[in-house]
C-alpha cells in the first residue's frame, strides 16, 4: 500500500482529552470522518510528553503503531475529542 502524503492536508484540528479537556495535539487531518489514527509526521504542535498519555489526568488515549510502514498513533475510542 502507498504511504500517506507527507505534506498532507492544510486544515488543522485541535485534539483534546475527553476527561479533562486538556489540549493534546494540533493535527493536519484529511477528510470529515472521525479521528481513528494520527500519523506522527502530520502533528503540527504537541502538548504531551510521550504522545500516549494526557499531560493533566495521565489517561492513556493512544497506542504507538505502524500503519502502512509509517509511525502513527492509534486512538482509543472516546478518549479524545476533535474540533
**Mean residue pLDDT:** 91
* Principal-axis shape: globular
The main β sheet shows up as: 4 strands, antiparallel
CA radius of gyration is 12 Å
Strand content: 35-45%
What is the β-strand count? 7
Which strands sit side by side, in order, in the main sheet?
Answer: 4-2-1-7
Which class do the helix and strand fractions yield? mainly beta
The residue ranges in which pLDDT falls below 50 over 5 or more consecutive positions are none
Q: How many domains, in number, for the residues?
A: 1
Features:
0% helix, three-stranded antiparallel beta sheet, mainly beta, 83 residues
Element layout with pairings:
Blueprint: E1 12-17, E2 23-28, E3 37-39, E4 43-46, E5 62-67, E6 70-75, E7 80-82
Antiparallel strand pairs: 1-2, 1-7, 2-4, 3-6, 5-6
Condensed summary:
It is built from no helices and 7 strands.
Structure description:
The chain is an all-beta fold and 83 residues long. It has strands spanning 12-17, 23-28, 37-39, 43-46, 62-67, 70-75, 80-82. Helices cover 0% and strands 41% of the residues. It has one domain (12-82). The strands form two sheets. The protein has a four-stranded antiparallel sheet, with no helix packed on it. The mean pLDDT is 91.
